[in-house]
Design a protein that fits this description.
alpha/beta, single chain
Length: 273
């Protein structure tokens, strides 16, 4: 049986812990609101870029681009999006489990793929597992994430794909559904599927009037400039989804920790009395 002094020390220590977790819960709730606002503000840009790309492709059925053309897959780039910090429940572990299950099912050798980790947790995971990485530099996913944070790694895997060194780019990340739910998603970033874009554009443009567009200097040059922008913006949207998921998961985890601490304090107080 613990002495009264020991019980009192445990009560005080648990109370201090609950104050910390409560503060972290409130901070994550505030950051989640900003992350949700960033997603809402970014979605119109993604929609407009996709519409512009679909319009260009629909203007000439013969028009193409290497990023739109599927080919035999010999080497794959996997992008893992994680958080920089922990205390977010199973958020990062779920992404890593889904990735390893896919690797075990798809590849017989680690030489058939390389990994591009975004976030410290993904970087540490890749190093720990001994996977080949696109870059040895750490790419952090800070709360106020910007294009420049991951521009270098994007340029790298786009260049490798265009040169034929890699044949596919797949992203694993957490999609934000609501505060309590975040789902692990696996999406092919490159190559993009051409037909769904064109079909969706034709449905949107259906009407009594046909719009005419002029492209300078020509359609091919516009498409060459637009394709990397579309890829980077799609990836940026995924990062925003992962960041919102991180804040939601940490908020939920800290709320659970606070509630558990309060229950422990009640039990210890009863024993003390």
């Amino acid at each position: 049986m613990a002495s009264m002094r020991d019980i009192q020390k445990r009560i005080n220590a648990t109370r201090k812990t609950s104050q910390i977790t409560k503060a972290m819960h409130m901070v994550s709730a505030s950051k989640l609101k900003r992350a949700e606002r960033s997603i809402r503000n970014f979605r119109p840009l993604t929609k407009r870029l996709s519409a512009s790309l679909a319009r260009i492709l629909a203007s000439d059925p013969e028009l193409g681009h290497p990023i739109l053309e599927a080919r035999d897959v010999k080497k794959t780039v996997y992008i893992l999006i994680s958080s920089d910090r922990g205390l977010a429940g199973p958020l990062n572990a779920n992404v890593f489990k889904a990735f390893e299950a896919h690797i075990e099912k798809t590849h017989t050798s680690n030489e058939a793929f390389v990994v591009a980790p975004l976030g410290y947790k993904a970087y540490a995971f890749v190093k720990r597992r001994g996977y080949e990485s696109v870059s040895d530099a750490l790419t952090q996913v800070r709360d106020d994430v910007r294009f420049l944070d991951f521009q270098d790694i994007c340029d790298r895997f786009i260049k490798d794909y265009l040169s034929g060194e890699t044949d596919r780019v797949v992203v694993f990340y957490n999609r934000f559904i609501n505060t309590l739910t975040q789902s692990v998603e696996q999406e092919t970033l490159i190559p993009l599927e051409k037909q769904p874009l064109v079909s969706h554009y034709k449905e949107d443009e259906a009407g009594p009037y046909k719009r005419l567009y002029l492209y300078e200097p020509n359609v091919g040059n516009v498409l060459n400039q637009l394709m990397p922008m579309v890829v980077v913006n799609i990836l940026y949207g995924m990062i925003l989804e992962a960041k919102a998921s991180e804040h939601a998961a940490r908020m939920t985890a800290m709320k659970s920790a606070t509630d558990n601490a309060i229950e422990v304090i009640k039990d210890l107080q009863l024993i003390y009395n």
